[in-house]
Amino acid sequence: MGWSLEERRGRVVDAAVQLAADRGLEHVTLRAAADVAGMSWDTARESFYDHADLLRAVSVEVTGRNVPVEAVGLAGGGTFTEGALDVALRFWEVLTAHRDLQLVSYEISVTALRRTALRPLVVGQQADQRALAEQVLTGFAEENGVVWDRPVADVARFVATFLDGLTTAWLVDADEQAATEQLTLLVQVLETFVEDPA
């Protein structure tokens, strides 16, 4: 078949993500992903350096699928608290739309922390989460005339860390009401990081 390298990698990664979501990351091997992708083992093997390369590609794909920023409107309305909570709830809805992908992301983190060669995966995940938070915070500030009283990167690290913990708790208890209450508290704290325009 005349697939390009990029197409071959894409097919195998899609299959690997599906395997991880359906059965867990421990079932993701290059051979299994190739089989699900309808590709020969030799063809798949030519597309990836090794298993770690496949897991790196899966990590990037899962991170991208978890929160497509374009799906989260950044314009709020009313007071800071009302507008920020509205955006936070929309963000959370997108973030938690696919519980299986959140679980895969968590499994990647644990696997990467246990294997030195894969540690860059979890470092990359953290960097991506902070960059995403910074993008949302910056967009929200621009859309709503908000000025942060400290570097937005510091606020983003705080928000990403908070959401990481909240997501883990939600994976355990699936308590949407508790998550909403925690997001409300997050917004109240964020309001203390806003410069008073007066």
TrEMBL record:
<dbReference type="InterPro" id="IPR041583">
    <property type="entry name" value="TetR_C_31"/>
</dbReference>
<dbReference type="InterPro" id="IPR009057">
    <property type="entry name" value="Homeodomain-like_sf"/>
</dbReference>
<protein>
    <recommendedName>
        <fullName>HTH tetR-type domain-containing protein</fullName>
    </recommendedName>
</protein>
<feature type="domain" description="HTH tetR-type">
    <location>
        <begin position="6"/>
        <end position="66"/>
    </location>
</feature>
<feature type="DNA-binding region" description="H-T-H motif">
    <location>
        <begin position="29"/>
        <end position="48"/>
    </location>
</feature>
<keyword id="KW-0238">DNA-binding</keyword>
<dbReference type="GO" id="GO:0003677">
    <property type="term" value="F:DNA binding"/>
</dbReference>
<dbReference type="Pfam" id="PF17940">
    <property type="entry name" value="TetR_C_31"/>
</dbReference>
<dbReference type="InterPro" id="IPR036271">
    <property type="entry name" value="Tet_transcr_reg_TetR-rel_C_sf"/>
</dbReference>
<dbReference type="InterPro" id="IPR001647">
    <property type="entry name" value="HTH_TetR"/>
</dbReference>
